[in-house]
Amino acid sequence: MTLRRTILVIGAATLVCRTAPAATPALLEYEVRAAESGTLLHRVSGWTERAADDRRVTAASRAVFPNGAVLEQRASFAAARPPAAPRCLDWEWSVVDAAGSVAASGRGRCVAAAFPFLARPLPADAYPSYPPYALLGFVSTHLGLGESRRSASYEYVLMDASLVRLDLRVERRERVEVPAGSFDCYRVRMRPDVRSILPDLPRIVAAFASFFAPTPTFWITAGEPQTLVKFAGIIGPPRSPDVVIELARVTPRDGERLGEAASLVAR
Amino acid sequence: MTALGRNRLVSAATALLLGSGAPALASDTSGRVVRYRVADAANGALLYTIAGWTEPESGGGGRVAVASKFDFADGTSYRERAVFADGTPPRCLSWTWSIADGDATVVAAGSTGVSDEAFPFLRGPLPRDVYPLHPSYALLGYALTHLGLGQRHEATFHYTLMDTALLEMELRIGSRETVVVPAGRYDAHRVRMRPTVRSLYPSLPASARPLVSFFVPSSTFWVTTAEPQTLVKMSGTIGPPGSPNVVVELVADGVEPRDRE
Asked: pLDDT tens digit string along B189-236?
């Protein structure tokens, strides 16, 4: 479908756990496969690190590609309790090739001055679109989505020059089977707000265009701390890969106790 | 529908620097600097200014570094530098950029070597005519004046979109006209630029493409007919959907002390 390939950066994969009541000490490992062929595209592992003062939590992830390239991302958020959206403070990422050389890197602070090309001030609930895994995957599991909150939205910065609003809606509660086990989940549909992309679009045309907009789906655990279990859809703009991301393993990190994450694995 | 005129596409068009291959290198030693003003298309308000120039680059092979600096009213500055190999189209080898706030504190920065490894999410190898999105100005502005437009009436190139996809842009020359900007009067080619429908909506049925193409926004820019080609004016959006609709005009083109930048 057409506009299917529009924008939106979903983020989906990384994920971690809730900042409140406690960050999960577990390492979450995902497999990212091409939706059509099932080919393994890369593996992602994600975790959180909480600052000593408990006021900042860092969502970190590491994606390993078959050619040996490694993408590492870190994004820090001000700790918040849902439904307040976590506020991004800063981010950094790097791509290292198989030989160990840094092929690309970036970093920034989530302040208005870092986005001088935007037509309006950076909203508090806006997130950089890159790196997608750490940033949006973390956010999606920290909005309090579930029985009591069926929908939410946030904005992300597209190519440092515009803001796109992404609407999230809980569709149903269902059981999901992934390599890591069987999980009781909420299925959430993501949809970009077409009028945030094309603000002058007539309402009727916007409604038509919405029909073609990409609507990736993700599943997050019903239990706390919420964790991304699965994602299906396009991560990125037109021509970005259509993928299926599944939680492959949950393991304690650095010998820490598995803690609340253990309850995630309802084998 | 001007509405859709707000769409996306990284038009680029703004930055830009000097002319082609050898002339550009010649300007390295001459200290040529081109300056632009970027105004809001709706109300004419000045958004920022751009200064662009080229620098000698080690490594030989006709390599040239294209640099630019954007100054915003609030004191924020944006700098970018990209290295190109000689050729048509010029091949981008690397780029860096940084943003500093009014206190000169760097609030964002990035660096990329243009290689397949730097874009692990892309499917397939990078085409030779690919230009990174960020910084879009120096890269695409430089590329636009190095595609031989005028000698040829159409051209295409790619740019990376959020590091996960490639968008193909098409350029088509329209009329030849005299353009008046603050820097003077120029004999220029008028060029329309927009993303290809097949690139934007790869799954769209071919029968629907004509309809959709009507809504695909385009930007217009003017480049000198004389060599080295220089961007004179640009009108449209610079960036993705929702980006400001701007008018970029050449305000100065001359030799300046390099240390001023």
From this structure: 999 998 888 787 777 788 877 777 777 778 899 999 998 899 999 998
Residue in this structure with the two tokens 């190109």, named with its chain if needed? B84
**Three-class DSSP category at A114:** helix
Q: Is A73 on the interface with B (CB under 8 A)?
A: no
Name which of B101, B202, B240 is nearest A161 (Cβ-Cβ).
B240
DSSP B214: H
Closest by Cα among B185, B206, B189 to B197:
B206
ipTM of the complex: 0.80
Whether the bond into B135 is cis, omega within 30 of 0: yes
Question: Can you read off the two tokens belonging to residue B232?
Answer: 């004179």
Longest dimension (CA), chain B: 56
What is the amino acid identity at position B251?
A: V
Residue from the list A106, A159, A241 with its beta carbon closest to the beta carbon of B10: A159
Which residues, other chains included, contact B80 with Cβ-Cβ below 8 Å and sequence gap of 6+? B15, B67, B68, B95, B96, B97, B98, B135, B137, B138, B139
Disruptive mutation site among A37, A239, A245 for chain B (greatest number of B CBs within 10 Å): A239
